Amino acid sequence: MQPTDDMQGDLELAGIDNLELPIASRQSLPWRIWRGTWPLLAAIGVVLAVWQILVLTGWKPHHVLPPPIEVGQRLVENLTDSSLLVAIGTTMRRIGVGFGLALVIGTLIGIAIVRWRVLRTAIASLITGLQTMPSIAWFPLAILLFGATEEAMMFVVILGAAPSVANGLIAGVDHVPRVLLRAGRVLGAKGVDAYRLVILPAALPSFIGGLKQAWAFAWRSLLAGELLVIIAQQPALGVRLQLSRELADARGLLATMIVILVIGILVDALMFGRLDKAVRRRWGLLEATE
Amino acid sequence: MTATLSAREPIPIDRGRRDASAPPAISIEGVHKIYGPRGNHVLALSDISLEVQRGEFVCLVGASGCGKTTLLNLIAGLDKPAGGTLEVHGRRALLFQEAALFPWLTAAGNVELALRLAGVPRRERRAEALRLLSLVRLQGFADKQPHELSGGMRQRVALARAFAQKADILLMDEPFGSLDAMTRDLLHDELERLWTDGGFTVLFVTHDVREAVRLGDRVLVLTSRPGRVATEVSIDLPRPREVGDPVAAKLVAEITGRLRQEVRRHATD
């Protein structure tokens, strides 16, 4: 090829490369934050408005259904004296340990099932069965086995969350595009390398989906456990709910419920939501939804 | 069948690298491949024989069902023949119609993964990946994710990844089939340039006869169901070739005619 021809080919290639690149549209940060938060703020506003209207209709007496403003005041009070913070601390420590164990156990079970076909037929359907079992149904057995202890709670949290972790991993591995498996084989990824470098990274989006679901199950199981298993000298969020009901303290009850709801949402959004979004952005799966 | 040279100034091709004494890069003798259960099986390839010399660029054309992909999988070692002998001398890399890049890695990361699996030490990988990317003229796109690249660029990253395997035999399965005509033309020039400089062997499967005549030293026409080599056409035209060239156009017409004849044969199946 003549040098000039070659240079022209080079320019043409570079030109078509640049023309075919997607144009990235970047919006300013405050605008993006606002776009992400106003629907949430609006939804909260609607809920508070309905609550206030319900109070104004006089459907239930004030000490049973207090107005949102009084519950808000109580929430601020409880947060400033240390009682609520200590309870949050206990519950968060438990969920941290329980979810962490569920993550490790669920991942190991998932890998084992993916690796050995026999295991799959043996226990894969059992795992799905475990997921449909309401976690609260496990507590009587857990208390018989472990007594009214944290072990009983951990037992139920792990039973609730680990199957979701395992299922997310299994589904992810099952749905790795065949063309990527083929590419991995052609590149010479065999055995452990095939899992470490191709199959598990490819399964990541589904695995994160599993983690999200596992978090919801773990949080529910733990709160159920804290209602049933009350350990002395261990103030926890579930214990506060139970105590408030016994004292007919509707303000304290609702304030604690709001804390539970907010923690559930924040962990889901800030940890798993962010992780999920980061992975999907990296893979280029986000454009269609944004 | 040999075509005469066109009026264009001939480009000397280094025929010396096709060493007659060296064993052929790919040598296939009487290979069969059967699919499906016994009693209800389909003969995908029947008694297929072909040789590809070291440094040669051979195109395989055939209508649907000729077992092109099956044949490439056999040569790539992804599958085993039911009978016959198959010898490959050299390291193989397989490219598909989809670039099949790993979406969680950047362009350079994809190439580095191939280097890692080829045993290249970690500290040398990045520099080598960048060198290979600049070979396919993607030096500025090393840190882009695959979804940020166009189809043609992804296919070039896949090509760089194949080079990272230190492959001297490229098996290409309709690699440009899903690209638009202009990108495809540019990639033909690009592949030809790399092949001329690199001295590797190419077995290129396509259903596009013009593409085969544009690129191949030889074009093998396969029959369908079962697949076997029906005709072989040598393309002794200087490179780079113009598809508008009358001699090339005549060859395209001939090969297309042969393919159509093959398809008609199956009208009464």
Describe the overall structure.
The complex is a heterodimer of chains A (290) and B (269). Chain A has 290 residues and is an all-alpha fold. Chain A has one domain: Orthogonal Bundle (MetI-like fold). Chain A is built from eleven helices and no strands. Helix content of chain B is 35%, strand content 22%. The longest helix of chain B is centred in the C-terminal third of the chain and has 20 residues, at 246-265. Mean pLDDT of chain B is 84; it is low at 1-17. Chain B is α/β, with parallel strands linked by helices and 269 residues long. Chain B has two domains: 1-6 and 22-90 and 168-269, 3-Layer(aba) Sandwich (Rossmann fold), CATH 3.40.50.300; 102-166, no CATH class. Chain B starts with 25 loop residues before the first strand and ends with a helix. In chain B, helix 2 packs across helix 3 and helix 3 (122-135) crosses helix 4. The A-B interface holds A 1, 6, 9-10, 12-14, 16-17, 20-22, 179-180, 182-183, 185-189, 193, 197-198, 201-202, 204, 279, 282-285 and B 11, 76, 78, 93-94, 96, 98, 100-104, 113-114, 116-118, 137-138, 141, 145-153, 161, 165, 182-183, 186, 189-190, 193, 240.
**CATH architecture field of chain A:** Orthogonal Bundle
- Largest sheet features of chain B: 6 strands, mixed
- Percent of sequence in beta strands of chain B: 15-25%
| Mean pLDDT value of chain A | 88
Number of domains of chain A: 1
The CATH architecture category of the largest domain in chain B equals 3-Layer(aba) Sandwich
The CATH homology group name of chain A: MetI-like
Please indicate the count of domains of chain B: 2
Record field, number of beta strands of chain A: 0
Q: Could you give the topology of this structure?
A:
The complex is a heterodimer of chains A (290) and B (269).
Chain A: H1 3-20, H2 29-56, H3 68-80, H4 83-115, H5 117-132, H6 139-146, H7 150-174, H8 178-187, H9 191-228, H10 237-246, H11 250-283
Helix pairs in contact in A: 3-11, 4-5, 4-7, 4-9, 4-10, 5-7, 6-7, 7-9, 8-9, 9-10, 9-11, 10-11
Chain B: E1 26-35, E2 42-52, E3 57-61, H1 68-76, E4 83-88, E5 92-95, H2 107-117, H3 122-135, H4 151-164, E6 169-173, H5 181-198, E7 201-206, H6 209-215, E8 218-222, E9 229-234, H7 246-265
Parallel strand pairs in B: 3-7, 3-8, 5-6, 6-7
Antiparallel strand pairs in B: 1-2, 1-4, 8-9
